[in-house]
């Protein structure tokens, strides 16, 4: 498969597509660049003239006028190699390759030509470093633990990971993708721990991406997923560098995209989407209870409204006698069947969510609270919906917010509607059929070729120590086996369980 893809790429690359950078001369390239008003090209006409060309929007002007032009003025008669050693800037390149010159100019380098008639020139890196300050995580906020989140600068993101893993075995491999954007994508892993198969799979999929521009890690996530038609995310998208460092230590691989404030990690499993990283900063008893609450909250969010529709439509006999009177009183005067009533409320909740997400934060919070109260009260008083269903839908929406990973919460919001439709047509049998379809889909789903439902399917008892509950750290001596780590051991069990307190 990889050989066929590689042949297709080579064949596509061999097709003529106009005049590329390698077919241009330096003069033609500079004439092409001068069509843009932010391109600067001037000749210093002293005793020893030289020409400087660069994009002023990409270059730090202080570096050019302070560290470059004074040295060129004094040393312009020197051979290019000697001149490169005199300029106090690292990684200066001496080249004749026009394609290399074009790529460097567009990434913030300065082109120096002692003789414009010759092809020899120097490329001096002088890119401006514009980036925002490191801030607090927004979608994965935690009360306990570090308060740093990724930013849009890939070097800063790698730095935050290396601070947490200061070892030479942490390797970074870089790939450029996107015909127009030339986006830098880096793959991180710990050599000797991560499975080489996982590394090669991720590298191949990223290298095979054929798209004109890549603006965020979400683009890459959709393109390298095992099943691109599945609503379930197959890699975790996180903004926390501490979470990335932790999963790298488990033997996983991570992916960073320049310009994106989040990272992708994998292979992953379904259970991990309901594990907040804050669980590892709390005692294992508290973390296990919170994790179980999240899992139960997700089941309630997906099944509560469909069960209401199924029971009121087909299975009245299942309602307890004491509760039946309350339901009859709440639905008296409601002109719609339960399914229409449920869809109206579910769509109202989704509209409030979208309105709150698209407005400024302070206004969005006000719209969500006030809108929910006003619309819910008005709908009950107008006789459009029952107060019992209003409570169920509100609790279901609240339960969906317990999901720590935003991409999975969107999936939960989506799959409620197929359950509602199946419940309307076939009652509890329809809910069971829809649940079987979802489970069958997840059983076939994989993440970088690894089972999505591990450690439940296939069953791996050793990995259940950090699945539905979290055992103490001294009980987690092995890395997850579904990752196929090259080094499965994390600690020495015998030494970890010894108590070496000083006797008084």
UniProtKB/TrEMBL annotation:
Pfam families, sorted: GerA
Biased composition (Basic residues): 1-10
Transmembrane residue ranges: 295-314, 364-382, 388-407, 419-443
GO-annotated biological processes: spore germination
Region (Disordered) residue spans: 1-22
Residues annotated as signal peptide: none
Keywords: Membrane, Transmembrane, Transmembrane helix
Assigned GO CC terms: plasma membrane
InterPro entries tied to this protein: Spore_Ger, UPF0353/GerABKA_families
Family: Belongs to the GerABKA family.
Entries under PANTHER family matching the protein: LEUCINE ZIPPER PROTEIN 4, SPORE GERMINATION PROTEIN
Protein name: Spore germination protein
Provenance organism: Fictibacillus marinisediminis
